[in-house]
Prior knowledge:
alpha+beta; 14 helices; five-stranded mixed sheet; phosphoprotein; coiled coil; EC 2.7.13.3; Beta-Lactamase
Amino acid sequence: MDNQAYPLPSSLFPLANALSNGIALHRDGQVLFANKAFSQLTGYAPDDLAKLDFWALFPPEVQAEARQRERLGPDDEPVPARYEALVQTRQGEARWVELSLSQQAVQGIATTLCILVDITDRKRAEEALRRVHTDLEAQVENRTAELQQAKASLEDDIARREGAELELLKRYAELTELNCLLHETQQQLVQSEKLASIGQLAAGVAHEINNPIGYVSSNIRSLQDYITRLFQVLDVYQATEAALPDAARARIDKIKHEADFDYLRDDIHELIRESAEGTERVRKIVQDLRDFSRSDTAQQWQAADLHMGLDSTLNIASNEIKYRADVVREYGAIPLVECLPSQLNQVFMNLFVNAAQSIPDGRRGTLSVRTGHAGEQVWIEVEDDGCGIPSETLDRIFDPFFTTKPVGKGTGLGLSLSYGIIQKHHGKITASSTPGSGTLFRITLPVHQPAEPGTPE
Length: 457
């Protein structure tokens, strides 16, 4: 193909051949000019291109639209067109090109200017990117499906566990309605709650302390008697000092002054008295501890002084209370009450400990204990000025296993067991509370237990 035969100024041939993009001019499919880059991209020599239909190089869908554009009338505004197409080179290699078409008048001849840009590498990169994107989407879909499956499995497991918990609570409620199992369960749980309140080793420690305290108390009484006798002897010696020689009296006076004899004589009685009071207090604490820890295995009802039980329990709980609150006793005149004393002591213990623990850190509170008598009933009130109980949970405080304390700080059985014990005594326990102001528990008990059916009066 002789470039000079093309309708293109000869001065533009070197410039066109120097371009890296393929450039060609055609008219009605006949190639009039093609630069070197166009020949290299298509694989056809210029002479071969002159013999080809230009559009045979491109897919049919590109041909149809491009030919339509070429048929625009002379008054129509030519619109440049740009296509991406897969071109088969003469060697059979498929290459992606970007084809730009525009109508041009060259030396008075209407032609179509074609510019080819090789975009094969870009298209391959895009295809690789699409494959990666597709793979990632597939992985995301697979992972999402796995997570959804795991979520469904977890939800099923949670539902099963919740169902099991509900079934457990239902079973517990059913068991508590059976009197024969209720008595046995309460005995075990009451004893367990005692151990949780005063410590696992309380009863054992009390037993171990009791014997040596007995020795010490007995020895202090004997020591007091011995010292009294010794002072009687000293009084006799002191009465005879006037008959002694002056030198002997001076020596005795010096020794008595150095030993501060008069102070020792007065203080030794006070020391023995304080020691006796201390051992008596220890003995009382040990006795309270033993009484509190003793299990009512025989379930023997007896007439008991509730004031004694309250004082004994306050003494046992003093370590829990004394750093948080001052105890105010407002006891009224009440008769002896037929009861199981140690079980009522357990109720008192739960109320005292709960009251002390409800008082916030940083301030000292007040724990008030009141008693009274009305007809054939006695009442006991335990009131604190702690943080109080919210109204939405107040109705649930006697439910088994319900607790507002942190995990590991409470079993949720204390008030439930207390409620059961009071019910067993044919009494009533109620609670009223104002959040931020404190809580009041009131227990009402009959003075005499009603006779069981079939029991002779």
